[in-house]
What does this fold into?
Amino acid sequence: MNTIIKVKDLFKAFHDHEVLKGVSLDIEEGKITTVIGKSGTGKSVLLKNIIGILKPDSGEVFYRDSRINDIKPQELLEFRKKIGYLFQNAALFDFMTVKENIGFPLVEQLGMNPGKKLDDRVVKLLDLVELPGIENKFPSELSGGMRKRVGLARAIAVEPEIVLFDEPTTGLDPILAQSIDSLIIKVNRELNMTCIVISHDIPSTLHSADKVALLFDGTIQFAGTPDEVMRSDHRILKQFISNSFRSRGEI
Amino acid sequence: MKVFEKIGKKIATTVDQIITFLKFFRDCFKWLPVPPFRFGQIAEQVEKIGIESIIIVSLSTFTTGMIIGLQLVNIMRLFGGETFAGAGVAISISRELAPVITAIVLIGKNGSSMTAEIGSMKVTEQIDAMETMAVNPIRYLVIPRLVASIFVFPALTALANVVGVFGGYLVSVKVMQVNSAAYLNTMYYWTDPDDIWTGLVKAVVFAVIVTTICCYQGLKTRGGAKGVGDSTTTAVVISTVAILIADYIMTDIFISFLGL
It folds into this structure.
């Protein structure tokens, strides 16, 4: 299987606080890779370094064989067109309707003009995330789960190669969380997009991921399939998994 | 020793912030002439900054004109030269008060709202979202505001000239009983086109200063609602001080170097 994103020995600190202390991780093309870890361990920082919103202090990020650190701003913009990003709180533009939010990357990246073609595309995307008929609503009129699904529709609007999900199920009830998991699987299997998911929701992760990586103390401490996760004797991983199930009342 | 360390850190941070702002300022002018020109967004901002500010700017400069008329007639009457109040009002309004009062009103009404809007977008990751969609926030958010301000500030200043001079005339002639013909005569005789256009040039410079400072503060907002509040306060304070300093510098250049 091809490696689509390669993170090599990545370091990132904010002032004196070291967040990433040498993260190395391979993301396989066409798979769902989930990075798990406690809150505040730098999972979102890792995603933002991958897409270039944050610059690493040292280390490298490769997209296929191209090193994307220090690339020119124009090349970075081109690289970002290959990636969709679902933010933790969806980050919908609150001054735009759902239609304008989903249409935004279509207009800005693909140069589509407002009109029937664009409207049809938005309707299709809303159908995909199972939210038909909400085109003219504003984000403030939507629930948390709906906002995330609209955010997902926006993230996949231009059919990127890779979609990054930043804690997609955080703050959602188990049923909504499950529906988001199903959407991630749908995006991966039906639209053939590589998915990188940041999560601390172990049941969700084990259900949807092809590969699980544990970020702890600034480094990747474990990486393997969900089966390998369940069989692993890794102390921190076991502790993390048992705590996660206990908090859900499943042990 | 710790005191020196603190002072050193403060100076280093301030220098760093100034350098970052200058880079942002350079980027604004780098992107200003580059298409696509977002006419829809520019028109929206013209309406918001310009049309919706007509009443407040008119009210502020009308009152200022009245105050200046009252003061000048009162002072000049001591020398028997109250008719010269007409020239005094027109020159002080067009050279100084119209651009400065307009800019201060627009800082309070629109500069603060630019910082708060962009700041809220920043803390809710909407700016990051824009960047991940390969859209440059400076081009999308700052340039339309900058272009609109460059047109609106001088337009409102021109309106402020008319309204302010009219306010001064009303008080001087109707309240202070100055002879209307003599008042208008001194005004026409002593007021030059230079007085008008130097004020309008100031308005354009103020537009650039206010918009870049307020948008920059919005873009560097951190830390939730408190961060948005802090950025907005900082933007208003810095823009106000900056336009007054810029006003002095431009006035000095116009008078000392250009002889205007």
Notes: Chain A touches chain B through 22 residues (CB under 8 Å). Chain A has one domain: 50-247. Residues 23 and 162 of chain A are 20 Å apart (CA to CA).
